């Protein structure tokens, strides 16, 4: 999990650094304005998304917030700090909307770059229909991921409705969740498999620049000519980062969602009539009772920390009693362990499932919408 956090952190850091370059250069006024506008637009879209009923868009944030609020209140009460909750739902959603707007802003130019390379790749591979099909599939698959989180057209049809002639739905809940995870991995693998074609389409811009220079009137020195061509190759590393960093961010957010949300890769093998404990599909009261039963069973099966430590200590041959300082150390260790367990219960699987699930879905959404906007831009200016 630490490696996943590191990949997510460095992906965000690289994308933020590339976006911040537009604010440091005085000549990048247009790019700077576009980043600000994209941030505000994605902020507005995120606010709209966060107020959509979860019966339509399966974000899981309502259940995650309820679980977090209840667990945090119990934790604060145990520490002698009675509270109704650490933060209101409005503040939490507002902070999430701001983060979504910032993520959309740093995804803007990578998405536009991806659209430009996709458009050029289709042009250069005009005689290879199979390759064009793969390129179009890799571009459309993120849209499939977006609609898999729309409940009426995904989960209800695949996991709840039994079609005519069938006694059970097509997929179980576990199989549906695993299918979404597998599709994310396939999208990333397909994009990385096609990365040589995308990067070659970018390098072909050098040839296009030469053709444009030959059409212009006037003269140009060899130094200026070399600068125009070499700038394409110098910028190749930035283009590679703009292509790979969003994909790695989406992939590792999904892996964190899978691990911390307690999903499994073997869920696709389970039949649709298998029963499972899924707290996001049952009411809060039932979920709380199930969690309480599991915790009660775990506490009765495991010995206390102090008993374990005491049993592991060697017996004294002289029959001396343990000093008071030793008791203080054991009590402190037991108290720290109990507080750590209580803190872990605050951030349980339901909380991770809700917030990481929404973060993963939003990353797919911004990745596709920014690329789709770039395709619209390319198609408009190519026809004018």
TrEMBL record:
The gene is Tmem161b_3. It comes from Bactrocera latifrons (Malaysian fruit fly). Belongs to the TMEM161 family. PANTHER family: EMEI, RE42071P. It is a multi-pass membrane protein. Keywords: Glycoprotein, Membrane, Transmembrane, Transmembrane helix. The chain crosses the membrane at residues 6-23, 35-52, 90-112, 133-150, 179-199, 232-255, 361-381. Its main location: membrane. It holds the Pfam family Tmemb_161AB. The keyword Transcription regulation does not apply. GO terms for cellular component: membrane. This is Transmembrane protein 161B. InterPro entries: Transmembrane_161A/B. The keyword ATP-binding does not apply. It comes from the Eukaryota. It is found in: Membrane.
